[in-house]
UniProtKB/TrEMBL annotation:
This is Polyphosphate kinase. GO terms for biological process: polyphosphate biosynthetic process. PANTHER family: POLYPHOSPHATE KINASE. Belongs to the polyphosphate kinase 1 (PPK1) family. CDD domains: PLDc_PaPPK1_C2_like. It comes from Marinobacter nauticus. Residues 152-332 form the Polyphosphate kinase middle domain. GO terms for molecular function: ATP binding; metal ion binding; polyphosphate kinase activity. The active site is at H464. GO terms for cellular component: polyphosphate kinase complex.
C-alpha cells in the first residue's frame, strides 16, 4: 500500500486542544497508562474543527464553504446536546467516571469550554470577515437593517405585519408570567422595556420566542432591490419592529439568544413497551436541562447574567457571538439563490455494467456478487432489488433492518408493497436511532398498517447492522439473496455519505444473516455463525485476534482500518502491541481517535489520517495483510465500545479476488490523498497534508468521482 509522502501544513495553534505530554520511550511502556490515550470528547471537537476549516478551503465552491460553516454549527449543537450534557449529568449526580485518558469530567468540561470558545470565535470571524465579503463580491447580500432602502423597509414592514405579527407571542415577565420554558435551540429575544402596559404593569423585561414555523432567512423581492440576491434575517425584522409587539411602551433593547438543552434520551432496560416509553421521552427532549447559552455580544451584562441564572448556567457555558445565534439556518442560502456556479457540480452515480445488462437483479447477483461504493455508484440497485422482490411471485419472504431510513422512502414503499402482496415481510426497526426516533415511530406505524411484521430489536442493544434477506424459490429449492452495508438505508444519505453495499447469494452468508434475524426477532442462545463477525458476540474478539495474527508476522504484518471513530481500549492496546512487534498500520479515521500514534516504542509504526471533503466518509473497512493473502471485511461497526460490545453489528468478508483488489485500491487512494487528509500527531494536533513541490494534487474523493461517476466533478 502507498505510504505517505506529502508535506503537511499545521492548523492554528491557538485553536486546538492543549498538546498532551508524549509518553517516555522505553521497552516497558505501560499500555494502560493514561498518557497513551487522547480524550474522546476533545478528539471529537478536533473533528468539528477540521470541518470548520473547510470553509477556508478555496478548492470548495463558495456556497459549499458556507455550508461547511453551518455543518460545524450543527455538529457543535449535537456535541453539546449529547456529550457535554452527559458530562454535566455525571457531575450533577455524582457519577463521574474517568476514561482511559485519566481526565475527570470537570477537567474535560473545562477544556471543552476553552477549546469550543476558540473554535466558535474563529467561526464567526470566518463568517464575518471571509465568507460574507466573498459572497458580497458575488452579488449575494445579507442586507442589514441600517442598509435597508425605503422600499425594502416598507416591504419588511408589510412582511412583519402579515407573516410575523399574527404568530409571534411576546411574553412579559412578571409574577403572573414567569420565565417561559423555551424549546431546545429555538431563537429567542430578551427585550428591555420602559413604561407601563394597559394593566399598569411595569416589568421592564420580556421574552419573544421567534415562531418556529417561519424561515430564519428571507429573500427580498427583486423589485425592491438593485440586482443580485438579497437576503434578510428574520431576527432583523423582529429587531426592527419589536416596538409593535409592545404598543405604548418603549423598547430600549432587543437581543437574540439561544439555549441548547440536554437532548439525550434515557430509557430503562426493563421496559414493557419501548415505543410507548420512547414517545414519552421525546416530549421531554425539547425541554431538558440547559447546557449552553448563546447570546448576541451586544447584550448588556445584566441581561446576560439574568439569563445565566434563569438557566442554571455559568460563565463557562456562555458563548457571546458577533452575528446570528443560529448559524445552522444559513444552509438555506443554497436554496434561496440560484447560483450553480458557486456550488458543487452535479454528477451522475454510475451503475455497474453487470446490472445494466440484466433485467433481473437476481440474475445479476447469481452471476457474481456486487460491491457498490456510494455515492459514486448509484444506490438504486438496492432499491430495485427490493422492488423486484416485492413483485416477484417466487419471493416468499423479506427481512430487513432499518436504522435511519425515512417513512416516505422508496425502500419503505417496497416493503409495504411486498406485504400487501402477501409476502412474509419482517422489519427490525431501531427506534432509538438518535434524532430519528420520531421518524422511526412513524415508519413503524406505516409498515404495520401495510401488514409488515415490525419488531424493535433487543432492548439494551441498538440494532445498527444493515441487512436485507430475501428468500426466493428457484428450481425447487430456496435461495437466499443478501444485502449488507456499511451505511443506512436512506437514499438521501446515500448521496452524501461514502458507503459500501454488498449484494450476494453466497449460501453461507445467507445462512448467517438468517440466523442473525432469528436472534433479533426470536429468543434463544447465540447461533453459530460461519462467515460473518457479529457484535456483541464475536466481532470484538475476532478483530483483536486478527490484529494479533498480524502482530505475529512482525515486520511483515499489515493492517489498515477505516473507521468513523476509534475509542475501544482493548482494540487500541492490540494495535499498540502490533506496532511494537513491527507491523505496519494505517488508520483512516474520520472523527474521534483516542489512539496516540507515532510514539517511539509504543506506536511508531501507526499512522492516523482523517479525510474531510465534499462527502462524509462513512465506509468501515478492516484490512489484514495476512502475508500477501489479504483478509478484507466491510462493516457497520466503528472501533468504539458501543459498536463492538453493546450494539448489534455485522462485519462481512469480501472474498472474491477482484473485489478484494478493488477495496485495496480504494484504501490505497485514501492513503495517497495529499490535500483532503489530515494527519494526527503524537501531541494530539492534526496537520493537513499538502502536495510536495511539483507533486500533483490528489484528493481521494475527486479521484473516486473521476473513476466511478458518469459525469465527474
Amino acid at each position: 500500500m502507498t505510504t505517505e509522502n506529502a508535506q503537511t501544513a499545521e492548523i492554528s495553534d491557538q485553536s486546538v486542544p492543549a498538546p498532551v505530554d508524549v509518553p517516555p520511550v522505553g521497552e516497558d511502556i505501560n499500555l494502560d497508562a493514561s498518557e497513551n490515550y487522547f480524550n474522546r470528547e476533545l478528539s471529537q471537537l478536533q473533528f468539528n474543527y477540521r470541518v470548520l476549516k473547510q470553509a477556508l478551503d478555496t478548492t470548495h465552491p463558495l456556497i459549499n464553504r458556507l455550508i461547511f460553516c453551518c455543518i460545524f454549527s450543527s455538529n457543535m449543537d449535537e456535541f453539546f446536546e449529547i456529550r457535554v450534557a452527559g458530562l454535566r449529568q455525571q457531575m450533577k449526580y455524582g457519577r463521574g467516571t474517568v476514561g482511559v485518558d485519566g481526565m475527570q469530567p470537570d477537567q474535560v468540561l473545562a477544556e471543552i469550554s476553552r477549546v469550543a470558545h476558540d473554535y466558535i470565535h474563529e467561526q464567526y470571524d470566518i463568517i464575518n470577515n471571509v465568507l460574507i465579503p466573498e459572497l458580497e463580491k458575488e452579488n449575494i447580500h445579507f442586507v442589514r437593517r441600517r442598509e435597508w432602502t425605503p422600499a425594502q423597509a416598507e416591504w419588511v414592514r408589510n412582511y412583519f405585519e402579515e407573516e410575523i405579527l399574527p404568530v409571534v407571542s411576546p411574553i412579559g415577565l412578571d409574577p403572573s408570567h414567569p420565565f417561559p420554558r423555551l424549546v431546545n435551540k429555538s431563537l429567542n429575544f430578551i427585550v428591555e422595556l420602559d413604561g407601563k402596559d394597559a394593566f399598569g404593569r411595569e416589568t421592564g423585561m420580556a421574552i419573544v420566542p421567534a415562531p418556529r414555523s417561519l424561515p430564519r432567512l428571507v429573500r427580498l423581492p427583486d423589485d425592491v432591490c438593485d440586482g443580485g440576491d438579497n437576503l434578510v434575517f428574520l431576527s432583523s425584522m423582529i429587531h426592527a419592529h419589536a416596538d409593535e409587539l409592545f404598543p405604548g411602551m418603549e423598547v430600549k433593547g432587543c437581543y437574540q439568544f439561544r439555549l441548547t438543552r440536554n437532548a439525550d434520551l434515557e430509557l430503562e432496560d426493563d421496559l414493557e413497551d419501548l415505543a410507548s416509553a420512547l414517545r414519552g421521552e421525546l416530549l421531554s427532549r425539547r425541554f431538558g436541562d440547559g447546557v449552553r447559552l448563546e447570546v448576541a455580544d451586544n447584550c448588556p451584562e445584566e441581561l446576560v447574567q439574568f439569563l445565566l441564572r434563569e438557566f442554571g448556567l455559568t460563565e463557562r457555558d456562555l458563548y457571546q457571538v458577533h452575528g446570528p445565534v443560529n448559524l445552522t439556518r444559513l444552509m438555506a442560502v443554497g436554496s434561496l439563490v440560484d447560483r450553480p456556479d458557486l456550488t458543487y457540480s452535479s454528477f451522475s452515480p454510475s451503475i455497474p455494467r453487470q446490472i445494466r445488462s440484466k433485467e433481473s437483479m437476481f440474475d445479476a447477483i447469481r452471476k457474481r456478487p456486487l460491491l457498490l461504493l456510494h455515492p459514486y455508484e448509484n444506490f438504486s440497485p438496492v432499491v430495485d432489488l427490493l422492488r423486484q422482490a416485492a413483485k416477484d411471485p417466487h419471493v416468499l419472504a423479506i427481512r430487513q433492518t432499518l436504522y435511519r431510513t425515512g417513512a416516505d422512502s422508496e425502500i419503505v414503499e417496497a416493503l409495504a408493497d411486498a406485504a400487501r402482496r402477501g409476502k412474509e415481510v419482517t422489519a427490525v426497526i431501531e427506534l432509538r436511532a438518535r434524532f430519528s426516533e420520531a421518524e422511526n415511530l412513524e415508519l413503524a406505524s406505516r409498515l404495520q398498517e401495510a401488514g409488515v411484521i415490525v419488531v424493535y430489536g433487543v432492548v439494551g442493544y441498538k440494532t445498527h447492522a444493515k441487512m436485507i434477506l430475501i428468500v426466493r424459490r428457484e428450481e425447487g429449492r430456496l435461495r437466499r439473496y443478501v444485502h449488507l452495508g456499511t451505511g443506512n438505508y436512506h437514499a438521501g444519505n446515500a448521496r452524501l455519505y461514502t458507503d459500501y453495499s454488498f449484494l450476494t447469494c453466497d449460501e453461507s452468508i445467507g445462512d448467517d444473516v438468517n440466523k442473525l434475524f432469528q436472534q433479533l426477532t426470536g429468543m434463544g442462545k447465540a447461533l453459530k455463525i460461519k462467515k460473518l463477525f457479529h457484535a456483541p458476540f464475536t466481532l470484538h474478539n475476532r478483530l483483536i485476534s486478527l490484529i494479533e495474527r498480524e502482530a505475529g508476522l512482525g515486520e511483515n504484518g499489515r493492517i489498515i482500518f477505516k473507521f468513523n471513530a476509534l475509542t475501544e481500549p482493548q482494540v487500541i492496546k492490540a494495535l499498540y502491541r502490533a506496532s511494537q512487534a513491527g507491523a505496519s498500520i494505517d488508520l483512516i479515521i474520520r472523527g474521534i481517535c483516542c489512539l496516540r500514534p507515532q510514539v517511539p516504542g509504543l506506536s511508531e509504526n501507526i499512522r492516523v489520517r482523517s479525510i474531510i471533503g465534499r462527502f462524509l466518509e462513512h465506509t468501515r473497512v478492516y484490512y489484514f495483510g495476512n502475508n500477501g493473502k489479504p483478509d478484507v471485511y466491510c462493516s457497520s461497526a466503528d472501533g468504539m465500545e458501543r459498536n463492538l460490545l453493546s450494539r448489534v453489528e455485522t462485519a462481512f468478508p469480501i472474498e472474491e479476488p477482484a473485489l478484494i483488489e478493488r477495496v485495496t485500491e480504494d484504501l490505497d487512494t485514501y492513503l495517497s490523498d495529499n490535500c483532503q487528509s489530515w494527519v494526527l500527531q503524537s501531541d494530539g494536533s492534526y496537520l493537513q497534508n499538502q502536495p510536495e513541490e511539483g507533486e500533483e494534487r490528489l484528493a481521494s474523493q475527486l479521484v473516486f468521482l473521476d473513476r466511478l461517476t458518469s459525469k465527474p466533478n
